[in-house]
Write a structure and sequence with these properties.
By secondary structure, the chain is mainly beta. The protein contains two helices and twelve strands, in the order ααββββββββββββ. Strand 3 and strand 4 form a beta hairpin.
Length: 213
């Protein structure tokens, strides 16, 4: 017969194992950017003015290997929409670089997991830093808690982009600022341009959505 102390130790080991499995499950790539054919996100796009925002739709249209093709419908930009490819890997969410040479890396890490404030890495399109892991953000689609925010800064163009991911939903906000070019000679002014993409509605296949509407 097992001693009570051995039984207790065995139970504690079991609980720790279950907790570890749960923790690993909580930081899977698809928790923060769920990709499946049929998933759809609709955003309001604005430039920080009083003008009525326009709608931008992202649709996962098919899968190519471990990558998913997302069709982006942008008003007044491209007939038929643009296409982006994202892959879910153990390291995190990766974006396939358009036009990358065969000798170059085809994927760019855009969200490193598990998320930790201060984690940073270099990419061909800028320097990435996780700047929040427990943010609360309100967008037209609702209020989302425990969000992860990734800030990307590109030194060459002085563009700063902040992307916010909500658990089980995906990208809920993208905030971008950039220098304004103007005047004779296209010189850079002190003014900063601003565009923001905010989630309006979404559809996730076979996912539980934690947002509060």
């Amino acid at each position: 017969m097992l001693k009570p102390s051995l039984v207790l130790a065995s139970m504690l080991c079991g609980w720790r194992l279950l907790w570890a499995v749960h923790a690993i499950a909580e930081v899977k790539s698809d928790n923060y950017f769920p990709l499946a054919v049929g998933n759809r996100w609709v955003y309001e796009s604005s430039e920080g003015t009083e003008a009525e925002p326009v709608l931008e739709a992202w649709d996962v249209i098919h899968q190519e290997g471990n990558a998913f093709v997302v069709q982006v419908q942008q008003p007044f930009v491209t007939i038929g929409g643009l296409e982006e490819q994202f892959a879910l890997t153990p390291e995190g969410v990766q974006r396939r670089l358009p036009g990358a040479a065969p000798s170059e890396s085809q994927l760019q890490l855009v969200l490193r997991l598990p998320p930790a404030v201060g984690a940073s890495w270099e990419g061909v399109d800028g320097h990435y830093t996780i700047t929040a892991v427990d943010a609360t953000v309100t967008v037209p689609a609702g209020t989302f808690t425990h969000c992860v925010e990734v800030t990307r800064f590109r030194k060459e163009t002085k563009v700063t982009e902040m992307i916010t991911y909500a658990h089980g939903v995906g990208i809920i906000q993208r905030d971008e600022t950039f220098p304004v070019i103007g005047g004779f000679g296209d010189f850079e002014t002190r003014a900063r341009g601003h565009t923001v993409l905010r989630l309006k509605e979404w559809k996730i296949i076979n996912a539980q959505l934690p947002a509060t509407k």
